[in-house]
């Protein structure tokens, strides 16, 4: 069941002088969803978030939140809480006063505000810190305070503008899981801007992949990873092999000396140049012994280099009949089992069912 829409953006465009920062943004966000705007620097994700917040006025287009047209509303009359990369806490106010900031004009009693501040500091894992000052807290703690402050008025929308990028790697990973858990508990519709693919894949219900002021794809983390809609998305999210090939007709493609069948969304006339995309894990090593050597996707290659990534490794192979090197991923157990080492010859089969085929003329992504 689709959640009811919380926010609908239609035809959003932003032009500065002669420069178009956003063009034709259409997007609907469901109530309770956690959505990430993901894309390279300058693609327009912060501009889009600021337009949603009313901190920037769109040049064209409409925004509807909870059935109300907010296109021209000033920020103070919109219903959201926001967290910036830079924490943006008031240094001369205590943590308690920072969190209470949005509540003091709300008409609640001092006691009610104190209780709400206590509850929020509990929720973000900082109980008892209301009398401290921001300078006495770490970056991660300050960002939790900023989160508590953003949530204080129980907004309908939580906007997070790269909230984790100023933090070190360990704190960043911990805090992103905490934010996600808190978001689930509260059910607050959340939009987070990030340029970190792993971060978006690990927390989002849906990812909006942006490039050059446009949306390339909107999908679940699994969809944008497994079924990238464009070469840009395939390149930008995760590691990818790009293979130059030519269509042979009937869903077959020739890549060097390999003939590969691929399920393509678009039929390509014979001779059409295409690019095939394949993830490094999309290969089989087991059960190849009885196979006819002419089986499509069966390969023989030599390991040229191995990059250790922690739980697994990325090997670069020189493959018979292929001009370009191929990246293959192995778990550490597979490394042992198949004796993968530099100089080893491996027999493997490409998962041709996972090949994505794009016109070679489609714009290249930023890898
Ligand atoms: P980053 O990850 O680097 O913050 P971003 O995807 O959030 O990038 P934006 O900050 O939204 O990108 O900027 C989009 C484009 O608009 C950029 O080319 C930027 O230089 C331009 N831009 C942003 N703000 C302004 C402004 N006030 N005046 C003119 N151009 C601007």
Automatic annotation (TrEMBL):
<keyword id="KW-1003">Cell membrane</keyword>
<dbReference type="InterPro" id="IPR027417">
    <property type="entry name" value="P-loop_NTPase"/>
</dbReference>
<dbReference type="Pfam" id="PF00005">
    <property type="entry name" value="ABC_tran"/>
</dbReference>
<dbReference type="InterPro" id="IPR013611">
    <property type="entry name" value="Transp-assoc_OB_typ2"/>
</dbReference>
<dbReference type="InterPro" id="IPR003593">
    <property type="entry name" value="AAA+_ATPase"/>
</dbReference>
<dbReference type="InterPro" id="IPR017666">
    <property type="entry name" value="AminoethylPonate_ABC_PhnT2"/>
</dbReference>
<keyword id="KW-0547">Nucleotide-binding</keyword>
<dbReference type="InterPro" id="IPR003439">
    <property type="entry name" value="ABC_transporter-like_ATP-bd"/>
</dbReference>
<dbReference type="InterPro" id="IPR050093">
    <property type="entry name" value="ABC_SmlMolc_Importer"/>
</dbReference>
<dbReference type="InterPro" id="IPR017871">
    <property type="entry name" value="ABC_transporter-like_CS"/>
</dbReference>
<keyword id="KW-0997">Cell inner membrane</keyword>
<keyword id="KW-0067">ATP-binding</keyword>
<keyword id="KW-0472">Membrane</keyword>
<dbReference type="GO" id="GO:0005524">
    <property type="term" value="F:ATP binding"/>
</dbReference>
<dbReference type="Pfam" id="PF08402">
    <property type="entry name" value="TOBE_2"/>
</dbReference>
<dbReference type="InterPro" id="IPR008995">
    <property type="entry name" value="Mo/tungstate-bd_C_term_dom"/>
</dbReference>
<keyword id="KW-1278">Translocase</keyword>
<keyword id="KW-0813">Transport</keyword>
<feature type="domain" description="ABC transporter">
    <location>
        <begin position="7"/>
        <end position="237"/>
    </location>
</feature>
<protein>
    <submittedName>
        <fullName>2-aminoethylphosphonate ABC transporter ATP-binding protein</fullName>
    </submittedName>
</protein>
